[in-house]
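Q: Could you fold this chain for me?
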Amino acid sequence: MTGLPGVRAVTVRQPWAMLAADGVAPVLSLPHSTTWRGVLYVHAAANPDTAALNLPHVIEALNACDNLTRTDTEHLDWLTYGAVVAVGRLIDVHDPVAQPALFGEPGVCCEPWGAVRAPGGRRARHWVLADVFRLGYPVTAVGRPSLWTPDARLIRHVTEVLPTEVPA
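A: Sure. Below is the predicted structure, expressed as structure tokens.
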């Protein structure tokens, strides 16, 4: 059975999926681009991005989530893997744009969440999200690299666990 035309999904590694689901990281730095825009499922990959734990803004954001402590954030085994964790809208995808130095070092657009390099070291594209809602509970699914189309079964299960405040 094929998916519905208006919904796509993207698989990202933790902790990025959780930070997007919580609305903390409105930009994902991914190694691929797309011209597609619309409803996007955020799928947590089966494996974490452990290098993210070296980034101060990630540690700060993780410590702010659910009253976690530094010892909780030293490992990523407490996060959800292999499941759709949030629904939002993909509103833009663009190349990182250098920003002039105002105070000290020059930067890049969408900082701190947008980076020049995606996890794994490849050149990043900034995927800008809006109206992101964490699901009532994660919906198990097998992810795929790049943008993918969820099947009707997955769409039905995700729709069943959307928070009640999501507009129809």
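A (continued): Helices lie at 16-21, 56-64, 70-73, 152-160.
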